[in-house]
Amino acid sequence: xxxxxxxxxxxxxxxxxxxxxxxxxxxxxxxxxxxxxxxxxxxxxxxxxxxxxxxxxxxxxxxxxxxxxxxxxxxxxxxxxxxxxxxxxxxxxxxxxxxxxxxxxxxxxxxxxxxxxxxxxxxxxxxxxxxxxxxxxxxxxxxxxxxxxxxxxxxxxxxxxxxxxxxxxxxxxxxxxxxxxxxxxxxxxxxxxxxxxxxxxxxxxxxxxxxxxxxxxxxxxxxxxxxxxxxxxxxxxxxxxxxxxxxxxxxxxxxxxxxxxxxxxxxxxxxxxxxxxxxxxxxxxxxxxxxxxxxxxxxxxxxxxxxxxxxxxxxxx
Amino acid sequence: xxxxxxxxxxxxxxxxxxxxxxxxxxxxxxxxxxxxxxxxxxxxxxxxxxxxxxxxxxxxxxxxxxxxxxxxxxxxxxxxxxxxxxxxxxxxxxxxxxxxxxxxxxxxxxxxxxxxxxxxxxxxxxxxxxxxxxxxxxxxxxxxxxxxxxxxxxxxxxxxxxxxxxxxxxxxxxxxxxxxxxxxxxxxxxxxxxxxxxxxxxxxxxxxxxxxxxxxxxxxxxxxxxxxxxxxxxxxxxxxxxxxxxxxxxxxxxxxxxxxxxxxxxxxxxxxxxxxxxxxxxxxxxxxxxxxxxxxxxxxxxxxxxxxxxxxxxxxxxxxxxxxxxxxxxxx
Lengths: 317, 332
Description:
The complex is a heterodimer of chains A (about 325) and B (about 325).
Chain A: H1 2-25, E1 28-31, E2 35-41, E3 44-50, E4 54-57, E5 63-69, E6 73-76, E7 80-83, E8 89-100, H2 103-109, H3 113-133, H4 137-141, H5 146-149, H6 171-185, E9 191-203, H7 205-275, H8 279-294, E10 300-304, H9 311-316
Antiparallel strand pairs in A: 1-4, 2-3, 2-5, 6-8, 7-8, 8-9
Helix pairs in contact in A: 3-6
Chain B: H1 9-24, H2 27-43, E1 44-47, E2 51-57, E3 60-65, E4 68-71, E5 78-84, E6 89-93, E7 97-99, E8 105-106, H3 112-115, E9 116-118, E10 124-135, H4 138-143, H5 148-164, H6 169-175, H7 177-194, E11 199-210, H8 216-283, H9 287-302, E12 308-312, H10 320-330
Antiparallel strand pairs in B: 1-4, 2-3, 2-5, 6-10, 7-8, 9-10, 10-11
Helix pairs in contact in B: 5-7
């Protein structure tokens, strides 16, 4: 019993040592899902690249396993200062996604990822430069003509002249053009460019300061417009006020005059009807009445002796 | 020196054998126990409730394992990578959270190289936003792209800039923020899917969108001017509302007064004419004497009131000297 256990244990130990030896000597090697391998014998490639993950075998000592990435890799370029077709200087920052599709050729012509990045620097930067210099600034910024086609209910500012350019191609299309051009330059079958994108576009400092100045000027203009709109609207309301005031008072005046006129006319009729009965008597009575009303303590009365009043006085003389 | 005491090499080996002989019986058991411990540690693994385990055997993808305690082959034959598939992760652009909490602290540093971008009307905006995402396919996540988070950051910047570049300053600042959020989310997802990253964008949210520092006062001035405009209009309406109802009232007053005037006038006319008619009726009974009586009565009333009275002869050619004399010494 003890003997069998011991022998099982011995077998196990031997196996374990064999496995460890196999790995150490390089007969067996592991490929991860993210990797692919090219076997070389004294630097000379042997067979096709191995892209299946799992356990693999090779000759020990004389053969070497060269690992390469199978995943999509990123390349991030340095920002480049590039003039556009309309002579605007901008910083353009691009990134690319690439993949090692043919590991064998990659090993032979590029070697490693650092070299690949150096090549991508040249390829993508020059493709970007070509495409950007061939297009207007607005074409690199905008994607569509949406901004020209949508009406804004209350825009603070009108659009800058240069922004009004109608574009045929937009940013997305430019990215496509860069990718196309870069793919043509890329060593074919070695690096597959999956995508090239414009990550950032910014004005160079001098232009940016000018843009800030323009933005400030635009805003000031908008502010002035609001203020003058306020003044205008306010004046309009005051005008309306003055007009309505005049309307109201004149209307009232008119109505009052009509009323008074009617009353006066009616009074005239009433007086007429009464006084027409005896006009002479009316004038006599009315005259007397005016005497009463006009003569007061300040009046001086001069009467001749011919007056009726002194008729008797004179007669006695 | 006692040469007898000096041990020969054979003696040492014998002593060693005698001592070691006892322990050499247990040695295999010690090694076996050690191996069992190691393999147990490599045999069992646990997956958290928000995770999924990706199992690879010799680097080759085998299976996924749900949360819980599981068994795998030990000694590095099978390897497990837990991927948090249920957790929503966040990337920030233009800001950085220092310490999340009830009152989240944000870094005071500005990340202008991330946040400054051009709008469609060729202005510059400082745009800050976040992207929330989660892993929808752990296998794709691990095996298709090298640095998924870096991909999210890059793609988000690309897409955000492209859409902001299609809108006006005012729109990004105010009215179209949600529209931009949605468009960016959709476009990001389509690019991530094209790279087969296995990532699901949950939300894209614009946070602070501001004009650049230098331009901000001018933008505020516009807002102030807007307020000022409203204020001026309100003040004008206030004056209007103050004046118009009062004017209406006054107009009403004028009309009422005119109506009063009418009544007065007509009543007077009626009164006076009736009085006249009444007098006339009496007068007609004895015209001569009544006329005289009225005349004399009037004079009786009137003459005493007058300050000065002169009676002159009609033959007197001029009354002027007389008046002058009277005035000179008159009031003494």
